[in-house]
């Protein structure tokens, strides 16, 4: 390819969508540079294709190595919770859409109207809805004012008559709590529970790497994909972006282009900007980086959905029916805690907690705060482009976040210990996707043997099962002890809180005169020329739902804004 008109730094959920739309115009020459591999459309590994998403989540080759995050350092985080832990951030073409939970939700209309109120003019619900419809083919609902029928991402749900008995029991518990059944979470926005829309066709995952970058799109002569190549920094002439410096197979190269679009996600987009001289001036100078544009908002405003889980053993009658090897039911509800907005909580019921035999016997309830108030940061740990960024989520600093997550933990614990859930879920325990759980869940032959043996023991007798749960599977205090001691429950929740894998908001959009805004509403980096950001980092505030579809929507919309 001759000099590209558009260099996309990052081939993730938004980057692939952006490149596909930009390359529709034959006058454009689009180069996508992705740090990880590209499996194309014909050689996708089975664990990525699988509709059961957790198979891909346990394959370390798909993720950034050595990426550690901190829960925070405030006194409410116990010593046990201050140790940084590994964060699963996709490093492959398609990014999160290639390895995530396949949750295909958009967010509340109020989320996007709120973006506009925060200075992201033109990103209100009425403006973004056409792009949500454009990106999808909904297999359950024909095209109407809310659904799309010709987009590259297929969306489907598991109907209620195919739910397993564990999920049905959870649904009956939600009924008794006064929550209504909602037929479609992507229909008119309302609270209640529903089958979860997922980004697959019932047989395989649909990511932006094989949806937006279909075989037809990949054959375009004006589109070039450059996988396994890391962008080290953006090149500037003054404040004008003119290209990128890359590292590929040990060789450093400079590639020049007319317009640079950073699409590396909520951690690596701010990192790349800061390495290139765009960010908080004092922080850059401390690392010996010349300042191109002093934007203090770069790497600030980090948001995600803090999550906590409780699990239990499922007897054979309660296990999933293997309709598409997974099930998910999803509840939107309001915490009713003072100072919090409506629909600020999400609870999920999962009838299979991992790909292996033990996971098939474990049902899980997880709850996350969909509208958190605490804010974290992404900073440079070093001026070395190969060093991982320093990430501090600052979880639960705001007391409203602590109160809501503790209340959610106690609520889930209560559901497991009462009918109807207790009939189908035995010996509940606090749970998390810890390093130990991840290690035994890696897809190896040894792990398959070990988990098969453990599964047989779980099924053998109640005393054996309880011993295994309390001494091998669970790493937490006994659930009954936590339910009886509010202080112990608070300490556990603050030590065990984890991400729902929805990092966002670290290069937020805003008005051009907003000192903490990083991009203007056209996604152009303020104080520079020919430089844009297009991914979840430009969200002013995290959406009330999983962030993959909103990220793809951002790629779709920014493509139009740039071409306009």
User: Could you estimate the helical fraction of the residues in percent?
Assistant: 25-40%
Outline type: globular
* Average pLDDT level: 95
Counted beta strands: 23
Secondary structure tally, helices: 18
Structural class of the secondary structure composition? alpha/beta
Tally the structural domains.
2
Rounded Rg: 23 Å
Query: Which percent range describes the beta-strand content?
Result: 15-25%
SSE blueprint:
Blueprint lengths: L5 E4 L3 H10 L7 E4 L12 H4 L4 H4 L10 E3 L14 E2 L9 H4 L9 H9 L7 H11 E3 L14 E3 L9 H12 L15 E4 L19 H4 L4 E4 L3 E8 L2 E9 L2 E6 L2 E4 L2 H11 L2 E2 L1 H6 L6 E2 L11 E8 L14 E6 L11 E6 L11 E8 L7 E3 L10 E3 L6 H18 L4 H4 L1 E6 L3 H7 L3 H16 L1 H12 L5 H6 L1 H11 L1 E2 L31 E3 L14 H16 L1
Parallel strand pairs: 1-2, 1-12, 2-8, 3-20, 5-6, 12-23, 13-14
Antiparallel strand pairs: 3-4, 7-16, 9-10, 10-11, 15-18, 15-21, 15-22, 16-17, 17-18, 19-20
Task: Give a quick set of tags describing it.
7-stranded antiparallel sheet, 2 domains, single chain, 18 helices, 23 strands, Cholesterol Oxidase, domain 2, 564 residues, FAD/NAD(P)-binding domain, alpha/beta
Describe the protein in words.
- The chain is built from 18 helices and 23 strands.
- The protein is an alpha/beta fold and 564 residues long.
Brief account:
With 564 residues, this protein is an alpha/beta fold. It is globular.
């Amino acid at each position: 390819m001759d000099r590209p008109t558009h260099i996309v730094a990052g081939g993730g959920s938004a980057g692939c969508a952006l490149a596909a739309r930009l390359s529709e115009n034959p006058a454009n020459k689009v180069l996508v540079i992705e740090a990880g591999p590209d499996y194309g459309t014909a050689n996708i590994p089975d664990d990525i294709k699988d509709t059961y998403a957790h198979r891909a989540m346990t394959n370390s080759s798909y993720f950034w190595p050595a990426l550690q995050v901190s829960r925070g350092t405030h006194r409410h985080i116990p010593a046990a919770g201050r140790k940084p832990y590994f964060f699963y951030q996709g490093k492959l073409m398609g990014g999160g859409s290639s390895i995530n939970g396949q949750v295909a939700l958009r967010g509340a209309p109020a989320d996007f109207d709120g973006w506009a109120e925060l200075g992201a003019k033109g990103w209100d619900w009425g403006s973004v809805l056409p792009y949500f419809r454009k990106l999808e083919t909904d297999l359950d609902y024909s095209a109407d004012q809310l659904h799309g029928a010709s987009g590259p991402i297929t969306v489907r749900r598991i109907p209620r008559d195919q739910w397993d008995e564990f999920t049905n029991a959870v649904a009956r518990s939600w009924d008794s709590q006064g929550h209504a059944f909602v037929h479609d979470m992507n229909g008119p926005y309302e609270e209640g529970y529903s089958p979860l829309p997922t980004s697959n066709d019932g047989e395989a995952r649909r990511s932006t790497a094989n949806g937006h970058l279909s075989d037809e799109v990949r054959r375009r002569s004006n589109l070039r994909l450059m996988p396994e190549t890391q962008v080290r920094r953006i090149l500037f002439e003054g404040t004008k972006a003119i290209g990128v410096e890359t590292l590929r197979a040990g060789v450093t190269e400079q590639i020049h282009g007319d317009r640079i679009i950073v699409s590396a996600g909520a951690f690596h987009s701010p990192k790349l900007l800061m390495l290139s001289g765009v960010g908080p001036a004092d922080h850059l100078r401390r690392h010996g980086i010349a300042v191109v544009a002093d934007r203090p908002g770069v790497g600030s405003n980090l948001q995600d959905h803090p999550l906590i889980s409780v699990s239990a053993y499922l007897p054979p009658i309660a296990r999933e029916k293997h309709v598409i090897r997974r099930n998910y039911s999803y509840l939107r509800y309001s915490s009713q805690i003072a100072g919090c907005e409506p629909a600020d909580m999400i609870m999920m019921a999962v009838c299979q907690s991992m790909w292996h035999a033990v996971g098939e016997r474990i049902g899980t309830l997880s709850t996350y705060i969909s509208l958190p108030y605490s804010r974290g940061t992404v900073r440079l740990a070093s001026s070395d482009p190969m060093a991982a960024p320093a990430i501090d989520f600052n979880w639960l600093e705001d007391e409203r976040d602590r109160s809501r997550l503790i209340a959610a933990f106690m609520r889930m614990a209560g559901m497991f210990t009462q009918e109807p859930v207790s009939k189908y879920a035995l010996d509940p325990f606090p749970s998390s996707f810890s390093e130990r759980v991840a290690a035994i869940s890696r897809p190896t032959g040894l792990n398959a043997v070990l988990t098969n043996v453990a599964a047989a023991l779980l099924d053998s007798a109640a005393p054996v099962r309880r011993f295994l749960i309390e001494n091998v599977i669970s790493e937490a205090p006994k659930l009954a002890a936590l339910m009886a001691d509010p202080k112990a429950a608070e300490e556990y929740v603050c030590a065990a809180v984890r991400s729902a894998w929805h990092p966002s908001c670290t290069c937020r959009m805003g008005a051009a005169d907003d000192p903490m805004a990083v991009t203007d509403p056209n996604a152009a980096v303020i104080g520079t020329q020919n430089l844009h950001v297009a991914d979840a980092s430009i969200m002013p505030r995290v959406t009330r739902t999983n962030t993959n579809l909103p990220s793809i929507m951002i790629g779709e919309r920014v493509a139009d804004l740039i071409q306009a």
